[in-house]
Amino acid sequence: xxxxxxxxxxxxxxxxxxxxxxxxxxxxxxxxxxxxxxxxxxxxxxxxxxxxxxxxxxxxxxxxxxxxxxxxxxxxxxxxxxxxxxxxxxxxxxxxxxxxxxxxxxxxxxxxxxxxxxxxxxxxxxxxxxxxxxxxxxxxxxxxxxxxxxxxxxxxxxxxxxxxxxxxxxxxxxxxxxxxxxxxxxxxxxxxxxxxxxxxxxxxxxxxxxxxxxxxxxxxxxxxxxxxxxxxxxxxxxxxxxxxxxxxxxxxxxxxxxxxxxxxxxxxxxxxxxxxxxxxxxxxxxxxxxxxxxxxxxxxxxxxxxxxxxxxxxxxxxxxxxxxxxxxxxxxxxxxxxxxxxxxxxxxxxxxxxxxxxxxxxxxxxxxxxxxxxxxxxxxxxxxxxxxxxxxxxxxxxxxxxxxxxxxxxxxxxxxxxxxxxxxxxxxxxxxxxxxxxxxxxxxxxxxxxxxxxxxxxxxxxxxxxxxxxxxxxxxxxxxxxxxxxxxxxxxxxxxxxxxxxxxxxxxxxxxxxxxxxxxxxxxxxxxxxxxxxxxxx
Amino acid sequence: xxxxxxxxxxxxxxxxxxxxxxxxxxxxxxxxxxxxxxxxxxxxxxxxxxxxxxxxxxxxxxxxxxxxxxxxxxxxxxxxxxxxxxxxxxxxxxxxxxxxxxxxxxxxxxxxxxxxxxxxxxxxxxxxxxxxxxxxxxxxxxxxxxxxxxxxxxxxxxxxxxxxxxxxxxxxxxxxxxxxxxxxxxxxxxxxxxxxxxxxxxxxxxxxxxxxxxxxxxxxxxxxxxxxxxxxxxxxxxxxxxxxxxxxxxxxxxxxxxxxxxxxxxxxxxxxxxxxxxxxxxxxxxxxxxxxxxxxxxxxxxxxxxxxxxxxxxxxxxxxxxxxxxxxxxxxxxxx
Lengths: 538, 336
Prior knowledge:
The structure holds 2 protein chains of 2 kinds. By secondary structure, chain A is an alpha+beta fold. Chain A has 21 helices and 21 strands. In chain A, a hairpin with a 7-residue loop joins strand 19 and strand 20. In chain B, the strands form 3 sheets. In chain B, strands 7-8-9-10-11-18-19 form a 7-stranded mixed sheet, covered by helices on one side.
C-alpha cells in the first residue's frame, strides 16, 4: 500500500505527462502482480462501490477526534474533501507502528475493505477508526478515499496503457484493447494484461472507441469535399455491438455492458453473422429521433419492462464496422469499412446512419442549418481514407455541432467546489426574472471562467455574501454571465420550470447590468427551437 | 465606534488606543501609527509619524518612502500620553512585533502576524502575560499543523536537485518579504548550486543583509548570459505566468505557503510542487500562544476569526472576532 500511495502522491505532484508515465511504469515493474492489478483498476478510472456513506464517515470522523463537532465540520468545509480532512485531523498512534501495519494494496482491499460491506455498523466503525489510527498520513488518506469509492487519479486510461506498454515492452494499442471491457483485478489478469501478444481476445472485449474532435478550421482546409463522408451527429448514446460465437455484447463508451437494457437491439443482433463488431448510436426513435431526455428514461434501468419498451422504443443507428468475418478491419479505409457495414448490417435489418449527399462544402453547410429541426446535434465529417483510430485522434473524424443557445443570467448563489477547486467558490447558480420580476434559478454551471476570473469572482463572493445556507452563499444579483447550452426542456423539478442541457459559462458580461438580463419568458421562447443562436467562432 | 474595552477600540482607520492617541497598523492615514511589520496589509503609507522595531525600519522605508519612522528596540518602553507602549518579537518576519500597551491598570497585547516555528532570520515569538490579547487567526483550524521546517527544506532541496540532475531550472515562488529570506537561511548549509533571485526578492535580501541577517550568496536574475539549468530561482508569486519566466524555458515550478497544506490549493494553483511553509502560527501554535498569555479576554482578527473565538468561548475564555481590514478569510491571495 505504501508503494501505491507513493505512486499516488507522485502523480498528484506533477503536471508533466512524461513524469506521470515514468512514475507508473516504475511502479508496475516493481509491484506485486496482485497489487498492480488493483492499481490498474483504479488508475484506469474504475471504482469500488462506496462501502460507507459520506454521512457515516463524517460521524466517525467527529467521534475520532477531540474537537467539537462544529469545528470538525468547519475543517471539512475548508478542506473540501472528507478523506483529506480525516488524514489531517486524526492523530495516529506512534508512527513506527503505522509503518509496520500498512498491508499490500490487494490485501488491504480484499481482506479489510471489501469485508467491511458485510459488517454491522458498530463493527464497521470500530475497524475504520482503528485503521485511521494505525496508518500514516498518506495511507490514511488513500484508505479513506477507497472507502468512499471516490478514489480518482489524474491520469487517463491512455497514459496507463502507455506506462504498461513501456514497463513490459508491448504495443500500446494491445494494452488498450486488453484493458477494455469486463475484467477482475487479479494477479492472473495482470499476467494476461502484460503477457506476450498471442492474438487471442476474450470474446466480450470491445475495441477502444475512435472519438471525433470538434471542427476547429474552415471546411476549405479539409481539402476537396469529394474526399469526405458526412452523417448527422445523433443525440444519443455511443455504443459498440459485438456478435461473436453466438453471443451478443453491447458496450457503452463508458465501458459499461448495457446489453440487458436494450433488448430490442440485442434481439436484432442475433441476425448478425459471428465475428461482427459494429459502432453506432443508440437513439430513442418514433418516426424520427426523440429528445435525449426520452432516452434517459431507458438508461436508469438495469432491466426494462414492456411498458417502458413500448413508450420509448430504441434503435441502434450503425455507422462503422470494426470486425468483419472475424477479422479486425480497423486499419481499412473509412469507405471500405462503410461498404462492409452496408453488406453485413442491412442484411440483419439494421438501420444505417445515412450518408449525406453533398457536392461541395456550401451544400454541406446548408444541410447543417437543418440540424436543429431534425433533432440532431450537427454533422460528423469522416475522411474517406481514415482508419479507425484509438481514442481522440485529430484528422480523421470531425464533429461539427450546431451552434449553442445562449442567454444572459445573473449570479445568485455560489458554493465551494471540490477536489482541485476546494475552498474556492466555483459552483454557481444563475437566475433570470419571471414576469413579476422575481429571480428564478435557471442553471448551475461550473466551467467556462479562467483561473484568474475564478479567483476574482471568489473574492467578490466572499466580500458580498448576503446570507449563508450551509455551504451555499447568497450574493446580491449584480454579476451577469452569458450562459451557453445545447438544449432546453420543460422540467417540473426546477423552480423555473425549465432545464438547460450542458450549461456552461461563455463569458463574464461586465458590460451588462443585472436589470437587463434575459427574462424567463425570453428563455421559454427558446423552447421553440432555433430562436437565437450565436456563431461558434465568436 | 465599537469599543473593545478600555485601552483599544476599532475605529474606521484601524485599531486605536485613545489613552495613548495612536493606531496600530492603521489602514487610513493617521497622526501616530505603531506598525507591527512591513507587509502591505499592515504597513500603509500616508501617516504622519511611524513607530516600529529598529531592525524592521529598513523594510518599512522601502514600503512607505521616507516619513519619520522611530525605531524602538524590543522591550524598550515609550510613553504615549497615559500608557506605556513596548514592542516584543512576533517571529513573523524581520522586525515583526507584538504591541504591548500598559495603562489604566491593564495590559493589552496586539499580536500582529506571528508564528511559533523557529526562523533564523528573525527573533522568536515571546509570549507576554496580559489581560487582553488581540490575536491573528489566519490558520485557525485544526487541520493546519505545520510540518518541521527542516523536513520542508529537505523536500525543496530534493526537488531542486532532482530537477538539476535533469537540467531543468527550479523556480520557487514565495512571498518576497520574509518567506524568501527564511527559505534561503534554511538552505544555507546546502551544496553550492547556484541560487538566483527575482529583483523583488533580491531588494529585500539586501535590506535583510544590511540589518545583519546572514543569507547565502544569491545572484539576481538579469539579462546577462546566465545558465539556469541547475539553478534554484526564487521569485514572488506575481511573476508566475509573466514574460519574465520565459528565460527559464521548461522550468519546474514550486510554491511555498501554508495554503499548500491542502491538496485542493496545491492542484488548483497549477504549480508542479507545493511546499508547506508559513510565517503564520498553525492551530497548535495559536492555541498555545493564547494560553501562554493568560489573557482573560481575547479578540481574534483576520482569517478564521469567528471560529477561533467560538472555540475559545466554549473553553471559558471571553472571546470575540474583530473585523479588521488585514487580509481576510483564508483568501488564496492573502499575505502568504
